[in-house]
Amino acid sequence: MNQTTINDAYKKEARERACMLITRWMYEAAIPFNAVTYPSFQPMIEAIGQYGVGMKGPTLHEVRVTNLKKELTLTKDLMKDHMVEWGKNGCLIMSDGWTDRKEKTLVNILVNCSKGTMFMQSIDASQ
Asked: Domain DUF659, which positions (predicted)?
């Protein structure tokens, strides 16, 4: 027979509070509910927990400049493997057209190979 310890009860309450605050933030920021299923979500939660009490979130500058540059570099590095594959075994260039909320016609350009599909750019084709 298992007894709930004080620590277990505290952790349950702390988790419920954290989840409620995360959920409230998602509502405020209009983040889609399925964002919690993204592969990057759980590692983010764990990194925050590992930091511990008192962690300050990223500043607007860190989000808009510093970390965006780092992500761009990581994305370019991921693309290198795909580009090598394109040269070895070829690739398929695909397009996907759609209309946004402002009635602009947009065309997404994607490249597919055995390593997967990569978005390359979006073109405004409404003119």
From this structure: 58-126
